[in-house]
Amino acid sequence: MATIDEELAQLERDIRQLKIEYDMFFGGGRKRPPTEIEWRIELIVKRYAERGGDLKFGQRFRFNNLSQTYAKYKDVFRKRMAQREEGTVQRHFGAAAKAIEAERSRAQAEAPQKGTPSAESAPTPAAVAAASAEARSFRVAFSEPENESQKVDQLFEAFRQAKQQAGEETAKLTRAGFNEFVRKKTKDLQSKKNCRDVEYVVETVDGQVKLKALVKS
Q: What would the pLDDT profile of 41-51 be if each residue is shown by its tens digit?
C-alpha cells in the first residue's frame, strides 16, 4: 500500500499531466478530455480532504497547495470547455485558422484583378492541407532540457499520443529513454551547430509520426 508521501507525489504528477493533456485536448492534439486522470485526482483529493487529521504539518501544507493548484486548473478547464461547447472560442485561433485566413485574404485581394466577384473566397485545397498539417504538429524549443522537465514531458506526450493516433507501437517508448534522447540530441546539435536553442517538431506525414530536431538561430 502506498504511503501518504507517495500518494501526494503521485497527485502532483497527475495534476501536471492533467494540464498537459488538457492543453493538448484544447489544441486539437487529442480527441477526448483526460477524464481518467481527472477522476483519479478527484479520488485522492476527496480522500485527504476527509482525512486531514492523518497528515503531518508538512504533508498537509503540500496537500493544500496541490489541491489549490488543481482547483485553479479545474476552473480554467471548465471555462474553456464551456466556450468550446458554446462555440464562443475565437474563430481564427491557431496556426491552421491563421493560414486559412491568410489564404482567404490573398484570394480576396486578387479577385477584382481577375474580374471575379469580390465575395468571400474559399481557401485553396493546398492551403487547407498545409494548414491542417501545421495544426497536427507540436513544437517546443529547448536550451537546457535537463532543466526544462515540463516541456520535455509535453513533447513526450505529444509524440506518444501522435503515435497512438497513427496506430504505431508505443510499448517500447519510455519517458526516461525519451528524456535522455532529447538531452543528448540537444547537446549534440548545440555543439555541432554552435546554437543555443534546438526546436523539436512532432508531426504526422503520410500517416507516419516523425520527430524532427531543428536548429534555431
A: 999 899 888 88
List, in sequence order, every residue forming a beta bridge with 211; answer none if it has no partner.
202
Whole-number Å distance between alpha carbons of 53 and 60 = 9
Phi, psi of 184 (to 5 degrees): -65, -45
CA pair distance 122, 142, nearest whole angstrom: 37
Residues forming a β-bridge with 208:
205
The DSSP secondary structure of 157-169, one letter per residue, reads: HHHHHHHHHTT--
End-to-end, the C-alpha distance of the chain in Å comes to 50
pLDDT 10s digits, 55-92? 888 888 889 889 999 999 889 888 888 887 776 544 43
Q: Sign of dihedral through CA atoms 47, 53, 56, 58?
A: positive
Res 200 pLDDT > 90 = yes
Q: What is the DSSP letter of 142?
A: E
Would you state the cell numbers that stand for residue 127, as one nine-digit string? 492551403
Cell of 132: 491542417
Q: What integer best gives the mean pLDDT of the chain? A: 78
CA dist., res. 191 & res. 151, Å (int): 21
The span from the CA of 49 to the CA of 70, in Å, is 13
